[in-house]
Amino acid sequence: MERLQKVIANLGYTSRRKAEELIINGKVKVNGEVITELGTKVKLNDTIEVENTILDNNKNYEYYLLNKPREVISSVSDEHGRKTVVDLIDTNERIYPIGRLDYDTTGAIILTNDGTLANKLMHPSSKVEKKYIAKVSGLVTGYEIKRLRDGIIIDGKKTANAKVNLKKYDKKTDKSIVELIIHEGRNHQVRKMFEVIGHDVLKLKREKYANLDLTNLKPGEYRKLTNKEIAILYSLIKK
């Protein structure tokens, strides 16, 4: 027995929070009966209908790695009509991104309809590493690198320890290239970390997510994950 909203999310229809809204608003049926109470538990063989769509408990999951371009929204849809990461994937399945990249941030993002994997990878306890390359204003000093490594306060909370290295400094343009590896996924985290130490992020790219990198993927291109890559992702969340 599982909570209804969790089952809906795990079947890839929508997020758990949105599923709760749909239940409260009478948009969900179980075995033909409208359910409006959060916390209702269902069985695997129950027929679940959301917004007149019967969810398939035996669906085939799909997993994609996308090199997200700039000016693309990390969402299923956008009320302003902007292009989303889902628009870039050619599939008939209802997939969605695992986590988010900012509108102007590029790089590795996973899309899937496997709600179990998505929810666990996004949970703070997973501690999945993400590698970013940031171009920032000014020279990032050794002292500032140490601050980033040791954790700094953003939004009233200290960031976890990070792996940080200065890759390059261009004296002519007064810009630094910095590599960061973090395992948190807080809102605008990398940009805020640099803001605290006095540097503007001019360009930001996520080069790697867990075991997945962007080899042979140009901006806007994607590929399906291999069974081995999927197995590795599952092994990470079981630690």
Structure write-up:
The protein has 239 residues and is of the alpha+beta class. It folds into 3 domains: 2-54, Structural Genomics Hypothetical 15.5 Kd Protein In mrcA-pckA Intergenic Region, Chain A; 63-124 and 214-237, Alpha-Beta Plaits, CATH 3.30.70; 129-209, Alpha-Beta Plaits (2-Layer Sandwich), CATH 3.30.70. Helices cover 22% and strands 30% of the residues. It contains 6 helices and 17 strands. Helix 1 packs across helix 2 and helix 1 packs across helix 3. The longest helix is centred in the C-terminal third of the chain and has 11 residues, at 227-237. The protein starts with a strand and ends with a helix. The mean pLDDT is 91.
Keywords:
239 residues; alpha+beta; Structural Genomics Hypothetical 15.5 Kd Protein In mrcA-pckA Intergenic Region, Chain A; Alpha-Beta Plaits; 3 domains; 9-stranded mixed sheet; 4-stranded antiparallel sheet; 17 strands; 22% helix
Entry summary:
This protein has 239 residues and is α+β, with helices and mostly antiparallel strands.
Tally the helices.
6
Taking Cα atoms only, what radius of gyration do you get, to the nearest Å?
20 Å
CATH-level-4 superfamily name of the largest domain? Pseudouridine synthase I, catalytic domain, N-terminal subdomain
Pattern of helices and strands:
EHHEEEEEEEEHEHEEEEHEEEH
Q: Strand pairing plus helix content: what structural class? A: alpha+beta
The tally of domains stands at 3
Which word captures the global form?
elongated
Indicate the CATH topology of the largest domain.
Alpha-Beta Plaits
Secondary structure: number of strands: 17
Mean pLDDT: 91
- How far apart, in Å, are the first and last alpha carbons? 24 Å
CATH architecture heading of the largest domain? 2-Layer Sandwich
CATH class of the largest domain: Alpha Beta
Largest sheet: 9 strands, mixed
Strand percentage lies at 25-35%
Helix content: 10-25%
Pick out the low-confidence regions. none
